[in-house]
Every structure is written in structure tokens, then in C-alpha cells.
Design brief:
The structure holds two protein chains of two kinds. By secondary structure, chain A is an alpha+beta fold. Chain A has seven helices and 15 strands. In chain A, strand 14 and strand 15 form a beta hairpin. Chain A is elongated, with a radius of gyration of 38 Å. Chain A starts with a helix and ends in a 13-residue tail after the last helix. Chain B is α+β, with helices and mostly antiparallel strands. Chain B has two domains: about 100 residues, no CATH class; about 325 residues, no CATH class. Chain B is about 60% helix and about 10% strand. Chain B has ten helices and eight strands. The longest helix of chain B is centred in the N-terminal third of the chain and has 58 residues. The two termini of chain B are about 15 Å apart. The chains are: A alpha+beta, B alpha+beta. At the A-B interface, helix 1, helix 2, strand 7 and strand 14 of A face helix 3, helix 8, helix 9 and helix 10 of B.
């Protein structure tokens, strides 16, 4: 091939640029310690990195969620075992006072002790953690237990704040016949000119799920029945209608001491896995839902029997107190098994996180040994091309002509 | 009269070799001139004398066409590479801190809220991380728009350049057509052709065209649809119009200036840097923007749907969390109602203030909303970044390949048309020897005549 001056020059310069380019790329990897410094270094790797980072962030969050639940459960467990101790104390009193040898005076003075136990128990059952009641189910802003037994109650129809500008009246009524506490919610489905044209829908679980039929016509002035004897009456106002999605809710309480509900609070601890970390006061202290013994009722009964000097009733409380202790122990062990589950889930996440960290590092971190070897190879190549470049045109026929 | 004849022969030989030496000098002088085509004297016997019948321009016509084709590809590839490099910088999340990280923080903020549904700090944190996320979307889309606009403003400049090159080529055609070709002018004519070849190669980097060398030494240049840019000394200009483009009225479209219908010829321009710009503006960036917008509109609608199922602190059903009228990356906004009152965040599944709905929204991150149920919102975003990375790689590879091809072809051209100093030095020695010999012939003839004269005298 004929070699012109430009060919000599171009060949050397192009090769020099190529060497410099790969030299600089390696230098960048060495200085950043990263294999991937921009998406085009390895698009699939980049994609993987972003997905791995997302997984790791989720794991951090799940771990944080679990740490929170664990403290909640720890507090719950300590409150429950304190409550268990109180019941043991009450049973000691009951056993001692059920014998015929005890006098009226000792019994009435022990009634005082039981009152102390009741107060203590109420304080425990109404304990808070992080500003929220431990035992009120999901109604965490409401004190779950009252000091005395209350008959079945239907709360006033509450209008959600900022609920349109309905100027009629809504009143609740009826006698609640349900066995557990419920929150009834009425949602306006279609708004009409008059109440008669308006339709509504009912939920018995606080608005989570909606019962059939999907819409029922409202009646002006006449009570509508929501279920279990709960009634609601809408009366038309002078000007403004109901509007779609207006919410009215009613707390219906079964007879007893409990104001909370039977729901448990939960949190996500893994993809698609939700974990219930709270224990409802219903299961711990009442005979409704999952519970079998109404603890406050038994304590009140014991106190009454002590005051009234009724050894038979005192004796009958012993078994109930035992059953109450068992109920609390059962819930303590439920706390324990939930914490075990958290421990296992957490250690799994730690393993997973280690794996992900390793994968992430394999993908994005530079293998220094390998890169530095390649770097010194490129360095040699670059030096060679510099050495060649410096010799361009050194040798021509001119040296031999005179 | 053989003495006089010898004198004439010596004169012709001297002149011819003088011309040859001049040409060699011209070659040496242009050894480093880009696009210079070496010239060679063609000696022909003019019995019994000699003349330089022609100054040959040594080049391969077909190689020129091939190089110009590579210049089309190179111009296209280089433009795409440069603009994509810029886009890639925006989407470079290797250090974190981009949309991916903020999306993760966004989901975590919902999880935190689910653990403490009435917490004001958690709600405030959710609002501020949502605002960071939306403003990150704004800045990504602004960056894409600004690349798109910069690309757009380059288009009229390139069209101007095309017109200038076409006009220069037509000009050279005219000078070639109107020059008396033969003899002394030939070297000058060759340099005009070199200049024209350079112009064609520059033009080839901007836009694709066909060209023909006519028998009268002029060239005709046609656009890929056969419309002429240059024919002989005639030229046709291109122009840009706005208000025509479907996606943005300020985008320029290319037309023939003389076309009464002003028909847009963007599709005729398939290679060269102008095609690269049109492609980046109308296809690449438009695609990236539409992917981002798909992501944004899914985020807005999916979060809103779930948010509206929950209840806020005041037991109202949730409203839109993101402003439902703003579903593009450039304008996504958290609803003004929520910013004004963070208690409107519907964290609860029931009217009793649990954290169930926040938990459900946090779990949306694992839902396969995108690509017909095959990817999550996060992985869809990761695939956009991967796509951009892949596009940059493809553009770089394309550019490297065409650079190599162009270098090879240029070397081949240089090998034929380029100047070799060694060769020229040899020619110089050769012509000098010829010149010396001719001079000797001259003086011998002169002596012969002298001798003759003396005899006569």
C-alpha cells in the first residue's frame, strides 16, 4: 500500500486516542471504586442496581416497622403480666376470704384491697404507648375501658368534619342488640334534590367493607335500620342537600366495660405480608369476641360480695379469677409467639440484606485487582503509542538525499 | 537544421520538467492539506519533442461516494451520541439521589405513617418527601425539554449550512463550467475540484444526498427523494417553518423554499447530523418523556384510587392525594388540599383512625401496575434508566463503527490520492535529472550551432 503523510499521522493519532479513551475509563473506575459510573457502562447492571437498592430500602423499612411492633409487643406483654399478677392477688384474697372463718370486718377491709386492684387493673387496661392506647383495638385515641359497667349504647350520629353543608338533622336511635362493639358508617352514594332521591350504603366495620345492596333510598324523617337495632333518622333541612361521599358514623357498644373494638393493628413486615402487632382489649379483658371472662365484671362481683359478706359468691369468683388468669396468660403467650415470629422474620431479613448487599457490591463495585491489572496493561499500550507518535516523520528519504 | 531542432527539443524538455518540478512542489506544499488530491504530470512524446499533455488528478471516484455515505452515518451517529450523553447525565442514578431513591423514600413515608397513623411528624414527612418526588419529576422532564429545545434551535443553523454548501458547490460548478480548461489552467481546475469534494464531504455530514459527476465536470446533488439541491450552476434552497409540528408549534420543520405547498420534508432527511437532531427531538426524547409520563400518570391514579378508599383524621373519605388533573412529569403535584391540611391524608382504613390505608398505599410499591402487569412502578423506572443506558451504548457503538469505517476509507483515499514526501522526493530527483539532461542538451545544441557558425564565419 502507498503510505501518504496523512496516513502515517492519522493512524498514530487515532490509535493514541483509543488508548487514551480506555485508559481514562479505567482511571474513572479506579477513582470512583465503581464498576458502573453511568447507565451506559452497563444498562442491565444499572437496572439491577436500582432494583436491588429498592429491595434494600424496603428491608430497612420492614426492619423499622418490626422494631416498632416489637417495642409495642414488649410493652403489651409487661402490662399483661402485671395484670396477671393483679388477678393472682385477687384470687389469693378470694380464696382466703371464702373460708367460713373470716369475719365481716376482714371481708370489708379486703374489699378495699380489691378496689385498689380494680383501679390498678383499669390503669393497666387503659395504658398508652407512644400516645396510643394499647388495648383499644384500632380506636387508639379512645380510652378502652370505663370504670363501671355500661349498658348497650348507641352513640350519637357523628358527622365527619367538613362533610359538605347538609343543614338537616341526623339522629341515631334504637337499642343495640349486637354482642360486640361496632362502628356503623353510612356513606351517601348518590345525592338527590330531596332526601327521597338520595341513596346510601352501610358499613358495619367502620367503613372498611360495604354491605349489599350497593345503594338504598333514604326516607325523610323516618328511621332507617342499619343492623342490630341501630337506627338512623335523616330529616331534611331548609336548603342544602347531602352530597356524594358524605360520611356519618355511629359507635355502637355492647353492654360491658369496653369501648374499643375487636380489630388488631397491623403493619407490613414483608412484601405482601401484614403483621398484627396489637392485642385487642376485647380478647384480654372481656367475655366478648375472642374473650371468655369479663375480668372487670368478676372483680366488681368479688368486691361486691366482700362488701356484702357473701362467702358463696366469693368462692364462685375463685374459678372465674383462675379462668381470667388463663385468658391473660393465653394473650401473654400470643405476644411471645408474635415476638418470636418477628425475630425469625428479622433474622431472615438480615440474611436477605446481606445477600442483597453482596449482590449489589458484585454489580456496582469495581474489582480493584482486576482493574488495576487492566489499567497497567493500558498504560503500557498508551506509552507505546506515545513512543511511536514521537517518531512520526523521523525517518524519511530526505535523510539520505544530499 | 538539426541544431535548431535540438534547441527546440531542449526547450520543450526544460519547460516540461520545469512544470513537473512545479507540480511536485505543489504536492509537497500540500502534503498536509486535508482533502488534497495529488497531481501528476502526464508526459507525452511530441515526436521528436515532449509536452505535458495533461495534469492528472489521482483519485478514485467510487471511493469518494463511499466516504460521503459514511459521512452521512457519522454525522447522524455523532449527533445522537452527543445529545444522548447529555440526557444520560440527567438519568445517572449511580450515586443515588434521583427518582429511584425518592420513590423508595415515598413508599417508606407511607409505611412510617401506617405505624403511627395520627402522627403529625409522619404526615409532614410524607408531604415533604412527596414534594421532593414531584419536583424531581419536574426537573427530569425540564431537562428533557431543554435538550429538546436546544436540539430544535440547532436545526435552522444546519439548514443554513446546507444552503451555504449548496450555494458554494453551485458556484464552483459555475467556475468550472466557464473556465477554459486546457493547459495551464488545469492545475487550478484540479484545486477547484478538490475544494468541491471537500464541500460535498462537509455537506454529507449534515444531510444525506446522491450526487452525479456530469461529463462537463459539474456535479449534481439530489436529496434522497430525488429533489435537486444543485444542478450545474443552479441551486435550490431549503427552509424551516414553525407552527406545523404536531407535538410543539415552536418546533422547526424542513421544507423546500420554493415549494408553494410548503410540504414538510423531515422524512426525506434520514442521515447526517440534521437527521440525528430530528430523530432525537421527535423520537428519542418524545419516547423518554412518554415513558416518564406513563409512570407519573400511573403513580397519580393508583395512589389516588387507594387514597380515596381510606379515611382522614376527621373521618372523611380521602380525596385525591395527587392533583388528578396533573398527570405528566412536568406538572405532577401533590393536591393543594393536602398541602394546606395534612390531616386530610387518609391513613386509616376505617373511621376509627387505624393505619391500614397507609399500609395499603405503602404496599402498592410491590403491585405490578406497569407493562400489562409485569412490573412495579419502581422497576418500570429502573427499566427507563436501563433503556437510556442501552440507547447511549448503541449510539456510541454506531458512532465508533462508522468512525472506524470512515478512517479506513479515508486511509484508502489517502493511499491513492494523498501525498507521500518520499515519493515526491524521488520524483523531484527524477525531474531534476531530466532537467539537467535537457539543459545539457541545450548547451550541446548551442555548441553545435556555435561550431557551425564559426565554420561559416
Amino acid at each position: 500500500m502507498r503510505v501518504s503523510e496523512n496516513i502515517k499521522f492519522n493512524t498514530i493519532v487515532n490509535n493514541m486516542f483509543k488508548s487514551q479513551d480506555s485508559y481514562n475509563k479505567l482511571a474513572e473506575k479506579i477513582s470512583s471504586l465503581k464498576e458502573i459510573n453511568k447507565p451506559s457502562d452497563d444498562p442491565i447492571g444499572m437496572n439491577k442496581i436500582l432494583n436491588l437498592r429498592e429491595s434494600r430500602t424496603s428491608i430497612e423499612q420492614y426492619t423499622r416497622n418490626m422494631d416498632g411492633s416489637e417495642s409495642w409487643l414488649t410493652i403489651t406483654e409487661s402490662k399483661l403480666s402485671a395484670a396477671g399478677d393483679l388477678l393472682v392477688n385477687a384470687r389469693v384474697v378470694a380464696i382466703a376470704q371464702s373460708t367460713a372463718t373470716m369475719s365481716v370486718e376482714t371481708r370489708s377491709s379486703e374489699a378495699e384491697t380489691v378496689q385498689q386492684l380494680i383501679d390498678e387493673m383499669l390503669a393497666l387496661a387503659n395504658s398508652k404507648y407512644d400516645g396510643r392506647y394499647l388495648f383499644s383495638g384500632t380506636k387508639t385515641k379512645e380510652a378502652p375501658f370505663s370504670s363501671s359497667e355500661v349498658a348497650a349504647t348507641i352513640g350519637t350520629a357523628a358527622v365527619a368534619d367538613g362533610n359538605g353543608d347538609f343543614d338537616g338533622t341526623v339522629t341515631s336511635g334504637g337499642v343495640y342488640s349486637g354482642s360486640v362493639n361496632k362502628t356503623y358508617v353510612v356513606k351517601i352514594v348518590t345525592d338527590g334534590e330531596a332526601l327521597a332521591d338520595t341513596t346510601y350504603r352501610v358499613s358495619v366495620d367502620g367503613g372498611k367493607t360495604w354491605s349489599d345492596p350497593p345503594s338504598t333510598d333514604l326516607v325523610d324523617g323516618a328511621p332507617i335500620t342499619l343492623g342490630d337495632g341501630v337506627q338512623l333518622t335523616f330529616t331534611e333541612g331548609p336548603t342544602n342537600d347531602l352530597s356524594e361521599n358524605d360520611i356519618f358514623y355511629i359507635q355502637a357498644l355492647a353492654p360491658g366495660y369496653y369501648n374499643g373494638n375487636s380489630e388488631e393493628m397491623s403493619i407490613n413486615i414483608a412484601e405482601g405480608t401484614s403483621f398484627a402487632y396489637s392485642i385487642s382489649g376485647e380478647a384480654v379483658f372481656t367475655d366478648k369476641g375472642d374473650g371468655t371472662v369479663d375480668i372487670f365484671n368478676v372483680l366488681d362481683k368479688l368486691k361486691g360480695a366482700l362488701e356484702n359478706n357473701e362467702p358463696d359468691i366469693i368462692a364462685s369468683c375463685i374459678d372465674d379469677l383462675k379462668a381470667g388468669s388463663d385468658q391473660i396468660s393465653k394473650n401473654i403467650s400470643s405476644c411471645g409467639s408474635r415476638m418470636n415470629r418477628l425475630e425469625i422474620a428479622k433474622s431472615n431479613l438480615v440474611d436477605l440484606d446481606l445477600n442483597l448487599t453482596k449482590l449489589l457490591s458484585d454489580t456496582e463495585d469495581a474489582d480493584m485487582a482486576e482493574i488495576i491489572t487492566r489499567f497497567s496493561m493500558k498504560e503500557t499500550a498508551l506509552k507505546a503509542s506515545y513512543a511511536t507518535a514521537s517518531k512520526i516523520g523521523n525517518l524519511t528519504i530526505l535523510d539520505y538525499l544530499r | 537544421m538539426s541544431g535548431i531542432k535540438s534547441l527546440n527539443i531542449a526547450r520543450d524538455a526544460l519547460l516540461s520538467h520545469q512544470t513537473a518540478i512545479n507540480l511536485t512542489g505543489s504536492n509537497i506544499a500540500n502534503a498536509n492539506t486535508p482533502g488534497y488530491t495529488r497531481q501528476r504530470p502526464v508526459f507525452s512524446a511530441l515526436n521528436p519533442s515532449v509536452e505535458i499533455s495533461k495534469i492528472e488528478r489521482i483519485y478514485d471516484k467510487f471511493l469518494g461516494v463511499q466516504i460521503n455515505e459514511q459521512m452521512h452515518n457519522l454525522g447522524y451517529g455523532e449527533t445522537r451520541k452527543n445529545e444522548l450523553d447529555r440526557i444520560e447525565m440527567t438519568f445517572n442514578e449511580t450515586e443515588g439521589g434521583g427518582i429511584n431513591e425518592l420513590l423508595n423514600k415515598f413508599w417508606n413515608a407511607w409505611e412510617d405513617l401506617s405505624a403511627n397513623p395520627s402522627g403529625q411528624a409522619e404526615k409532614q414527612a410524607l408531604v415533604s418527601v412527596s414534594q421532593s418526588l414531584t419536583s424531581m419529576f419536574h426537573s427530569y422532564s425540564n431537562e428533557l425539554f431543554s435538550v429538546q429545545n436546544d436540539v430544535n434551535t440547532q436545526i435552522p443553523f444546519l439548514v443554513d449550512q446546507i444552503n451555504n454548501y449548496a450555494s458554494d458547490i453551485a458556484d464552483i460548478n459555475a467556475r468550472i463550467l466557464h473556465t477554459e480548461i486546457k493547459g495551464a489552467n488545469e492545475s487550478g481546475l484540479n484545486s477547484l475540484k478538490d475544494e468541491r469534494a471537500n464541500l460535498l464531504s462537509e455537506l454529507a455530514g449534515i444531510v444525506d444526498f446522491h450526487y452525479i459527476e456530469n461529463s462537463n465536470d459539474s456535479v449534481s446533488v439530489f436529496m434522497s427523494n430525488g429533489m435537486p439541491l444543485v444542478e450545474g450552476d443552479q441551486k435550490w434552497e431549503l427552509d424551516v417553518v414553525t407552527e406545523n409540528h404536531t407535538s410543539n408549534p415552536s418546533f422547526y420543520d424542513v421544507i423546500f423554499k420554493d415549494d408553494p405547498d410548503k410540504e414538510v420534508i423531515n422524512n426525506v432527511i434520514t442521515k447526517g447530523s440534521l437527521a440525528g437532531l430530528l430523530d432525537i427531538r421527535d423520537v428519542t426524547i418524545t419516547d423518554y418523556l412518554s415513558s416518564l409520563n406513563t409512570l407519573v400518570s400511573s403513580i397519580v391514579s393508583e395512589i389516588n384510587v387507594q387514597h380515596k378508599l381510606g379515611y382522614d383524621t376527621n373521618q372523611n373519605l380521602g380525596e385525591d392525594f395527587f392533583d388528578a388533573t396533573k398527570t405528566e412529569a412536568k406538572n405532577i403535584e401533590i393536591s393543594a388540599v393536602i398541602v394546606a391540611d395534612i390531616n386530610k391524608i387518609a391513613a386509616s382504613e376505617t373511621v376509627n383512625g387505624d393505619g391500614g390505608n397507609a399500609s395499603s398505599i405503602g404496599a402498592l410499591k410491590d403491585e405490578l401496575f406497569m407493562n400489562n402487569g409485569h412490573s412495579t412502578l419502581n422497576s418500570y423506572y429502573a427499566s427507563i434508566v436501563g433503556q437510556i443506558g442501552q440507547d447511549v451504548i448503541d449510539a456510541n457503538r454506531d458512532f465508533d463503527r462508522h468512525t472506524n469505517l470512515t478512517n479506513q476509507l479515508t486511509n484508502k483515499r489517502e493511499s491513492i490520492s494523498g501525498v507521500s514526501i518520499d515519493e515526491e522526493m524521488m520524483s523531484l530527483v527524477r525531474y531534476q535529472t531530466g532537467y539537467n539532461a535537457a539543459a545539457k542538451l541545450f548547451s550541446t545544441a548551442d555548441e553545435l550551432i556555435d561550431t557551425l557558425m564559426n565554420m561559416v564565419g
